[in-house]
Amino acid sequence: MARPKKQKSSISPQEPITVREFWDQQATLHKGSDLATNPDQHYRNLEIEHILRAIGALEPKAILDVGCGNGFTTERISEQHPDAVITGIDFSQDMINEANRHHSGNNIDYRVGDVLSLSRTPGLHVGEFDVVLSTRCLINLANWEEMKVGILEMRKMLKPGGHLVLVENVQDGLDNLNHMRQSIGLPPIKTRWHNVYIPQDKLTKFLNEIKGQLLDTEYVENIGNMYYIASRVIYAKLCQDQGIEPDYNNKINEIASKLPTMGAYYACSPNFMFVLHRVESGSEWSSRRLSS
Q: What span, in angstroms and rounded, lies between the C-alpha atoms of 92 and 77?
């Protein structure tokens, strides 16, 4: 899953790193903290609340958390579903080590694996899970073609009638946010070097192609729309006017994290939740039928 692109390390600036090495470093730096996968803790809590609500409505008995990182969210899921069997998988051995150290549980099993070859991961079985979750995992892949492979691999792991919950960053949400920022003189927010946000038009076309055959879309939500407007636009503008750097832990961000999403018509958060339902086509499906 590691992308060939390299970047200077924030820990060791002289050495270029891969995506996998970046996440290994995050594990070393942050251990079991939620900061290992997102520096904005208020938003992280908001995101987890939405994930727990979605999974809770499905009442699963077996859950696969793909790209689980250090297990921070996985443990929260475990607390909500103590009777479920939960598996966390990540391509960073260091992240899995931290997950076992800090976020283990009687019903959690952590493994090293790659979303691009998920169905061939030792110890996992195709058709084993009621819910498969991906939280900002796909955006670490190299391109849209790999993302499609990742989605189809996760679909393989679902039981018939199971649900795939994708919580991923979409480029169009970031574009809307940047349009709003630029209208008041703020610079655009750029994607981080190790991320490729999902192109919404291609995802929509893909989901329409597999509708009724592989996965049906049950629910879509733009998570944290109001939070991003308050924190990345209003608060950011106040900081710019005062000549100070924004602080993720500012009281405004805390208040904004408690606001309703309100993102149905103009999504200003990059982060979307897609709840997809596995369906059976009754005939063999070939990936060659999918457009780019």
A: 20
Per-residue pLDDT reduced to its tens digit, 184-197: 999 999 999 999 99
Please list, residue by residue across 273-285, b when 16 or more beta carbons sit within 10 angstroms of its beta carbon and e when fewer do: bbbbebbeeeeee
Q: Which residue has the tokens 């924190």?
A: 231
What are 61-111's pLDDT values in tens digits? 999 999 999 999 999 999 999 999 999 999 999 999 999 999 999 999 999
Q: Checking phi first, is residue 71 left (phi over 0); if not, alpha (psi -120 to 50) or beta?
A: left
Q: Which residues contact 29 (CB under 8 A, 6 or more apart)?
A: 11, 36
Q: Count of CB atoms within 10 A of residue 47's CB?
A: 24
Three-state SS at 199? coil
Could you tell me the domains of the chain?
A: 15-169+195-225+269-280 (3.40.50.150)
Helices 72-80 and 41-58, axial angle in degrees (round to 10): 40
The closest of 205, 194, 218 to 131, measured between CA atoms, is: 218
